[in-house]
Amino acid sequence: MRVRISWRRPFNLHPGDSSVGQAILPAAGFQPALSEHGRILVPGKRRLKGGCSHDWLPHKTLWDICERASRRAPAPQGIAIAALAFAAVILMADQAPAINVQFTDVTAQAGIHFTHNAGRSGHKYLPETLGAGCAFFDFDGDGWPDILLVNGKDFNPGGRKTTAALYHNNHDGTFTDVTKGSGLDVEMYGMGVAIADYDNDGREDVYITALEGDHLFHNEGNGKFRDVTQAAGIQNANFGASAAWLDYDHDGKVDLFVANYVQWSAKGDLFCSLDGSTKSYCTPESYKGTRSRLYHNLGNGRFEDVAEKAGLGDPTSKSLGVTVLDYNNDGWPDLFVANDTQPNKLYRNLGNGTFKEEGMTAGVAYGEDGVARGAMGADAGDYDRSGRPHLLVGNFSNQMLGLYHNEGNGLFVDEAPSSTVGRSSLLSLSFGVFFFDYDLDGYPDIFAANGHIEDEIGRVQPKVSYKETPLLFRNLGNHRFDNVSSRVGPAFSKAMVARGAAYADFDHDGDLDVLISTNNGPAVLLRNDGGNRNHWLSVRLAGTKSNRDGIGAVVRVESAGGKQWNMVRSGSSYCSQSDLALTFGLGADASANVEVKWPSGAKQQFKNVGANERVLVDEGRGLSKLQ
Ligand SMILES: [Ca+2]
Ligand SMILES: [Ca+2]
Ligand SMILES: [Ca+2]
Ligand SMILES: [Ca+2]
User: Fold this and answer.
1) Which of 540, 541, 550, 623 is nearest to 250 (CA)?
2) Cys-Cys crosslink for 286: which of 168, 282, 516, 520, Cβ 3.0 to 4.6 Å?
């Protein structure tokens, strides 16, 4: 194995400091053998003299050697580096080798030509800067992920007619716009989307949050959707953002949580300014919070808002993101709600139709300074194979991503400040965030879609920009991540005003591709090239006693490389929905044992499932291979 050592300039965490997550300087005259990806961070001479920084050293052996070297200081650089190089080889030995993955912008060649309309009025209305989301979902049940892009509309009357866009996957890397006549071609000021088969008829239905009232669209088959909002009893004329389907009461019918943001109307719009004279987009401190919704699925096509009686009706919350997780591993799906400038909420499902809020005691309500951050999107995933779901939260600029490690005792510890994830995300304003294993090595990596809310932010904060580049962190194991954003192709150096983000293997080559929606700009489709050098397994569920999509089911995969798991979930990221099939990276392993634990309590086990397959696990009939 070959590894290359880099020097890293000392950095600090002052907001705006330009060295954060940036300067990696090659050590003069020292180019030992390293892996093409495996940059090991080695402290520079200044830092060695002053002692070691644990933050920089991803391994205990490195840490010990660094300490010894610094006690001997001033150690000749060569000795310290030689010792560290030795340690680096030890370190690399217990990690999967990095493979070369590039993300290629294939938006145009795939036939995606969508541009989001923020409906800019000239008044800088708050909603104009916060939309919209996107979804990968298989609307026609052919096994290939299709695309839905949510749209806004003009605030000023008499403007253009703009609607959401539905793109059918042609199975050859291209998509066809099939919006017209689909029933989704309805004008609305849309924000977020959540997908599930709420009536268990085998077809994926669509929920879209919109300013003037959300919409529930029933999938009728043949590419047609019917707006059933009114008949369903759903009334959410609110500033809804992200939404998520979950079966919180395990009755086999998925229910719906809708994160509502603030009390806002064009009439009540407030004046905010960055420079004291011209209007800017307000931060949410200016507006009152509002209650989110929990729609209980009654099963006859109707829903009942039970947020109040379930204990989710907090009027002070300013919610933008939601992720479903079972953080205490009792089988009941809990909710993490990301709030903008208000404490985040962690609602523990008590299993009796009610939830108990534990965000503060669990340590996820605030940043490490005890201040509520501007939280946007969120996701949950087991990035360290501890068997527990941890939390990822996208936060405002000059606030890091939140990477809350679930300690298993009801407490979470934010690991971002002590890792590359925090340092590299400090300046970014992150909306869509998720865990996904882009290199299929079996360890979930981190993606963040970024973009500021204020187009003139660069004028008053020179270190912060309106358009921002996305971030990709490779999971190195041992709670360490590598910021690989600059090494996965030019698409990751293109700045944009990103909002939503979702993933799916749209080209069926095994690896996960990324869809990004931008505010008042084009959607972006990034194809993963090279991730499938490692092996993979894609698992799609079909519930019978449980809900049809298997939302809330836990899939465990065990291969030679170890054990991993994930839970089927709707929601997460920001205003967006990723594919409901779960993709597991298997590294070099040729097969895996698969176990599915359904929300109904049923359990199924399958031995020696071959790698590089798409399988369907039916709660009644068991496992079958898909095309
Ligand atoms: Ca359906
Ligand atoms: Ca239910
Ligand atoms: Ca990975
Ligand atoms: Ca792919």
Assistant:
1) 550
2) 282
